[in-house]
Every structure is written in C-alpha cells, then in structure tokens.
Amino acid sequence: MKLLSWINALACGFLLAPAAFAQAQLQETRSALEKWVETRGLISKTRIDWQADKESLQQTIALYERELQSIDAQMGKVSTNNTQALKEMAEAEASKKTSTDAIERARQFTAEFEAKLKQVLPQFPAPVQDLVKKDVARMPANPADTRMLAAERVQVCVGILNEIDKFNNAVSLFSEKRKNEKGDEVAVETVYVGLGAAYFVNEANDFAGIGVPGAGGWVWTPKPGLAPTIRQAIKIYRSEHSPAFVRLPVAVN
After folding, report:
1. How many helices and strands, by DSSP H and E, does the chain display?
2. CA distance 249 to 10
3. Contact indicator for 197, 210 with CB cutoff of 8 Å
4. Is 20 buried (19+), middle (13-18) or exposed (0-12) by CB count in 10 A?
5. pTM score
6. Number of other CB atoms surrounding residue 46 within 10 Å
7. Per residue, what are the HEC states of 47-73?
8. Is 89 helix (H, G, I), strand (E, B) or coil?
9. pLDDT per residue over 69-101, tens digit each?
10. Percentage of the chain exceeding pLDDT 90
11. Taking a C-beta distance cutoff of 8 angstroms, is the pair 171, 193 a contact?
12. Class of residue 209 by CB neighbours under 10 A (exposed 0-12, middle 13-18, buried 19+)
C-alpha cells in the first residue's frame, strides 16, 4: 500500500515537472520580449532624438555658413573699397601735385611780370598809368613775402594787361598839361594813337607838338606848325568836323 502511494507520488512529480519547466521558460521569454521592446523603444527614441538634433545641427551649420559667406562678401567689399580708396588717394595726390606745380608756375609768372611791369610802367604815358594805378597798388610790395593768393595776383596782372591792350588798340583824347619852351605849363589836348604816337595842341593853337615813347618815358617835341592839323584831327575825333584824311608825322623805332 505504501509502495503504491510512493509510486503515485513519483508519477505526479514527473507529470508536474514539465509544467513547471514550461512556466519558467514562458516567464523568461516574456522577460526577454519586454527587454527587447524596451530596447527597440530606446533605439526608436534615440533615432528620433538624433533626427531632431541632426536637423538642428544642419540649420545651425547652414546659418554659420551664411554668416561666413556674408563675412567673406564684406571682406571682399572692404578689399575693393581699400583698393578704390588707394586709387582715389593716388589720383588726389597727383591732382594736388599738378595744382601745386601750376600755382608755383603762376607765382613765378606773376613775380616776373610784376617786376617787369614796375620797371616799364614809367615808360607808359600818364593816362595809361592813371588807368592801371589801382591795380598796380594791389600788387604786393614784396612778391616773396605776401599772403596774396597766386590766382588773385594773376587776375591783377591780367587786368593791367587788358587796360594796356585796350589803350593800345584805340585812339584816345585827354586833357593834359605840357611845358612849353619857356618851361611854363600849358593846358593842351593830346590825341594818343595807341602806344605808338601822340599829338598835342593848346586852345590857342599856337603851341603844339608830338610825343613818342622813349626808354625813360615819353619824349615830347614842340611842333608849332602842326597845330592846325592836330586841331582838325581833334575836331574829327569829336565829330565836330566831317571825316577826312589827316597827315601827321609818325616816328617808327
């Protein structure tokens, strides 16, 4: 009886052993599946996170690349601007040198002209000296030490030349005083034919003569016999006489 009970118990043990083993295997498999699912979740999350980080990194890289391109463009402009600035500076320096040279030549010209003008001014007749008196007074006393601009000095010289040229290309009549043979001053009218010759006569038509330029100034020579002819020329000049040819002596040097 005891033997039968032991056999039954042993048989039950054999029957229950496979069920317990299967249960253990199932539990192990379930645990492995859970780990696998968890791992796949982590992998998926990591992949999603990496994708997001990748896009962010790509955007950041693109932003930096655009900034670098902008900086390169600005640097190129700076280089171009520097080149242009250097070119303009060189042109300005060349223009400044040209202007400085021109001003220096103008200073030299005016200094030489002023010196020559002061030297020959006494040789001009009194009416010309009166015409240019104001401009001559504007010339610097010392050309080497003056604050007067070169352009202004040239303008003064040109003004004097214009007045002289205008006088030289016209017939002019002036009232003057001339000394007679006795040394007395007599009021006369003088007709200047440019800067080449002049003829004078007094109101009484008994004192007349001619004038020509000389090294020390104009030289006046009495010619009483020319009085009627000179008077006629004056009347024609004033439109008090009909036009006519008038013969007067001319000295050509």
Report:
1. 5, 5
2. 179
3. yes
4. exposed
5. 0.59
6. 10
7. HHHHHHHHHHHHHHHHHHHHHHHHHHH
8. helix
9. 666 677 666 666 677 777 877 877 877 788 778
10. 33
11. yes
12. buried
Burial level of 146, CB count in 10 A (0-12/13-18/19+)? middle
Burial profile 106-131: b = 16 or more Cβ within 10 angstroms, e = fewer: bbeebbebbeebeeebeebbeebeeb
pLDDT digit string, tens, across residues 109-139? 788 888 888 888 888 999 999 999 999 999 8
The DSSP result for 108-136, as a single string, is: HHHHHHHHHHHHHGGGS-HHHHHHTHHHH
Q: Tell me phi and psi for residue 236, to 5 degrees.
A: -65, -40
C-beta separation of 118 from 137 below 8 A: no
Of 253, 251, 199, which Cα lies nearest the Cα of 228?
A: 199
Confidence of residue 157 (pLDDT cuts 50, 70, 90): confident
Query: Hey, is 217 helix, strand or coil?
Result: strand
Cα distances from 99 to residues 92, 102, 145, in angstroms, run 10, 5, 20
Q: Which amino acid is at 87?
A: K
Distance CA 172, CA 85 (A): 60
SS3 154: helix
Structure tokens at 147: 């604050």
Asked if 127 and 164 count as a contact pair (C-beta separation under 8 A), the reply is: no
